[in-house]
Design brief:
This protein is mainly β. It contains one helix and 34 strands.
């Protein structure tokens, strides 16, 4: 009996001991936190924080002109969580970068880091440039290709003037637009784009301009101007001063220069500057070429014409002479020479008449092209028809195919 009691007491003790251990044990709960709470990048020596959207798990930056190719982020995330890739690993944030946050209990989420990086502006242009001198606003002509600004001052004052300048948005200019300048000096303006790129514009004062190139008998073609070798030409423009040091005109084919001899220079005042009219001749030795440029060059300037000159050295009308020194209506004009064309031009009363054999004109050329005859029965050619008594000097121009202008000869009509 005693033995049974001892056994019962032992069993009861074990049961009590077992119940005590179960009450002391608590279940282990692992953290489910897997948040990024702060994400920043060091950009241009400044810490920039991204905007975190916990709903769609995005981290967004809006930057401008940042170098994002190799940055180590500063990340704050949930305690007991782990992050991949590691916080000390540099990343190229020019592209979207994904970070995986793994909670202590193994739950994982992915955050996407998106950097909207606007590039810095590269624009560094002077868009407009003008100067007011006395009562005149001088508007600059800008060549972005040559980085030059052309101002025509003529006789206007150039000193102590404040320009009006418009430049590209976000750019800066030096010297500043509000600074007065002496435009007699060699001036340059630096325009710096937002990204630091610099463009330097030079101010060019009274740059020569070639306005027009034509035969002295008139304008028969525009661009290109069609001429024969030995044709007399007129060059018109502003600031074409042959007194300037080293002033020359030449034809240029891209490689070779063919210099012109100047026959006459006429200068006429126009507003505040001098307009020049210069006559010359195409040299006899200039070879046939379709796209010559006329160049005016001095020690300071080199200016090409916008107009091309097409010159032919084949079939050139030459050795011109006339049978009379003066003509009246119904006279017979006889021109002798070589390679004479079947068209001539005669100016009258502000117009230029193109004359070839037709119902209006009796013009013939012999088979050898050595003699041209024209019956002068067209009254519009004579000053007497318009009530003028004095004889007028006429410049008769020979015209080849497509109105190519050749040599001229002068005579009087009355």
């Amino acid at each position: 009996m005693k033995l049974i009691c001892k056994i019962a007491i032992l069993i009861l003790f074990i049961q009590l001991l077992s119940c005590t251990d179960d009450k002391d044990k608590e279940p282990v709960i692992l953290s489910s936190e897997n948040f990024i709470t702060s994400f920043s990048l060091q950009i241009n020596n400044e810490e920039v924080h991204g905007e975190i959207n916990q709903s769609d798990k995005t981290i967004t930056f809006n930057t401008k002109g940042a170098n994002l190719s190799s940055l180590i982020p500063n990340i704050v995330y949930s305690d007991k969580a782990t992050i991949k890739p590691g916080v000390n690993v540099s990343q190229n944030f020019n592209n979207e970068v994904a970070y995986t946050i793994i909670a202590e209990n193994g739950d994982a989420v992915i955050y996407r880091v998106i950097v909207n990086n606007t590039p810095l502006s590269t624009e560094n242009k002077i868009l407009s440039f003008s100067v007011k001198s006395e009562d005149k606003t001088i508007q600059g002509t800008i060549s972005h290709e040559l980085k030059e600004i052309y101002l025509e001052f003529g006789n206007y004052n150039k000193e102590n003037l404040v320009p009006d300048i418009e430049i590209s948005e976000l750019a800066i200019i030096s010297p500043g637009a509000n600074q007065s300048q002496n435009f007699s000096n060699d001036l340059k303006y630096e325009v710096t784009a937002e990204n630091g790129e610099i463009a330097v514009y030079s101010i060019v004062i009274d740059k020569p301009i070639i306005d027009e190139i034509s035969s002295i008998g008139g304008t028969f073609t525009n661009n290109p101007v069609l001429l024969y070798a030995q044709a007399e030409i007129r060059i018109s423009g502003v600031y074409l001063d042959m007194e300037n040091v080293g002033a020359d005109f030449y034809l240029y084919d891209g490689i070779n220069k063919y210099y012109l001899e100047i026959d006459e220079v006429k200068q006429n005042p126009y507003e505040n500057y001098i307009y020049s009219s210069i006559t010359s001749s195409i040299p006899k030795t200039v070879p046939t070429f379709a796209t010559y440029k006329l160049v005016y060059e001095t020690g300071s300037f080199r200016v090409e014409s916008e107009t091309y000159i097409d010159i032919s050295n084949e079939g050139v009308p030459t050795s011109l002479s006339l049978n009379q020194d003066e003509y009246s209506r119904n006279d017979i004009l006889i021109m002798d020479g070589e390679n004479l064309p079947d068209m001539i031009a005669i100016p009258s009363n502000g117009s230029v008449f193109l004359i070839q054999n037709s119902s209006n004109y009796d013009l013939t050329v012999n088979a050898d092209k050595t003699q041209l005859k024209l019956t002068l029965d067209y009254y519009y050619l004579f000053p007497s028809y318009f009530g003028r008594d004095e004889a007028e000097l006429k410049v008769i121009t020979t015209l080849g195919p497509s109105r190519r202008a050749g040599k001229t000869i002068k005579t009087y009509f009355k």
